[in-house]
Amino acid sequence: MARGGRGRHLGLALGLLLALLLAPPALWAKPTVRKERVVRPDSDLGERPAEDNQSFQYDHEAFLGKEDSKTFDQLTSEESKERLGKIVDRIDSDGDGFVTTEELKTWIKRVQKRYIYDNVAKVWKDYDRDKDDKISWEEYKQATYGYYLGNPTEFQDTSDHHTFKKMLPRDERRFKAADLDSDQTATREEFTAFLHPEEFEHMKEIVVLETLEDIDKNGDGFVDQDEYIADMFSHEESGPEPDWVLSEREQFNEFRDLNKDGKLDKDEISHWILPQDYDHAQAEARHLVYESDKNKDEKLTKEEILDNWNMFVGSQATNYGEDLTKNHDEL
C-alpha cells in the first residue's frame, strides 16, 4: 500500500478516484518533490538517523505514519508498558522467557497480514451490496464508477474523463487477475489481492505492468532514464537539478538498468519496485533487537523490551500502535 512506502501507487482505486474528485485541479499536476515507488515501507525515509534517547521518531513515522504515530498519546507510559508486556508474552512463542529475532519477525509478519485484512474488512460493506459475502465486478464497478457511467456528459470535457476512462479497464484487468476461479466475483481473499496486489505473488505481474504504464509516457513498453526521473520529479524552474535527482540518475545507470541498454524492461522494473533481497520484517526485527539488547546475547528479555518500550510502541511489532489499545484475547 507503491514506488512507495507501504505501496503508495498501489492504494485503493476508490481512494484515488475520490482524491481526484475532491482535490482542486491544481493538485493534479506532477509532483515537484521526490516520489517513491519501491514496495518497501522505509523507502522514503533515507538512512536511519542516530536515536536521541528521547524519542524514536524514525520508527514511529516509518511504521505508523506521521498521523498514526500519535495513537499513543491516549496512553500513559505505565499503561503502555503493561499492555506491551502482554504482547511480549505472545511474541515469545516457545515460552522460554526470551524474544528472538526470528520470533519478532514472525510476529511482525503476522501483524502486517492482519492489518491488510482489517483494511479490507473496513471497506467490504461498501462494495458487497447484495450482502452475499462476495463482491462481483459489477458491484465494484457500480460502487466506484457508477456516477461516472451514469452521467458521462458531465465528465466529457474534463480531465476526469481521461482518468476514469483509463482506470476502469485497468481495475477490471486487476480484478480478473485477482479472481482466481474466474467467476467474476471476489471472495475476501481475492478482493484482498485486488486491493493489495503487492502482497500476493500471483498479482506481482499486474503491479509491474501498472507501474510501467504509469511511467512509460512514450508508449514504447520501456522506462528510459528521463521517464524514470519525471515520475519522481518535475523540473518546473530553471536551474540545476537537485542533488538527489543526480543521485537517482546514477542509481538508474548503475543499479536499475541491469542490462545497460539505457531503459528498463518489465524484469528490471520488477527488480526495482519489488526487491527480492529485502525482508522488511527481518530488518525491523533485527533493528529492535540490536537497539534493545543490553547484554548483547542477541535475544531480548521482557525487561529489556519494557525498558525500551517507547521504541516498540512505534514499531510493527505492535501493529502501528493499535495492538496496545485492543482486546488482546483476539490476538
Automatic annotation (TrEMBL):
GO terms for molecular function: calcium ion binding. The keyword RNA-binding does not apply. It is found in: Endoplasmic reticulum lumen. GO terms for cellular component: endoplasmic reticulum lumen. Residues 1-29 form the signal peptide. Its main location: endoplasmic reticulum. Pfam families: EF-hand_5, EF-hand_7. It comes from the Eukaryota. Keywords: Calcium, Endoplasmic reticulum, Glycoprotein, Metal-binding, Phosphoprotein, Repeat, Signal. Residues 79-114, 115-150, 166-201, 203-238 form the EF-hand domain. Belongs to the CREC family. May regulate calcium-dependent activities in the endoplasmic reticulum lumen or post-ER compartment. This is Reticulocalbin-1. It comes from Bos taurus (Bovine).
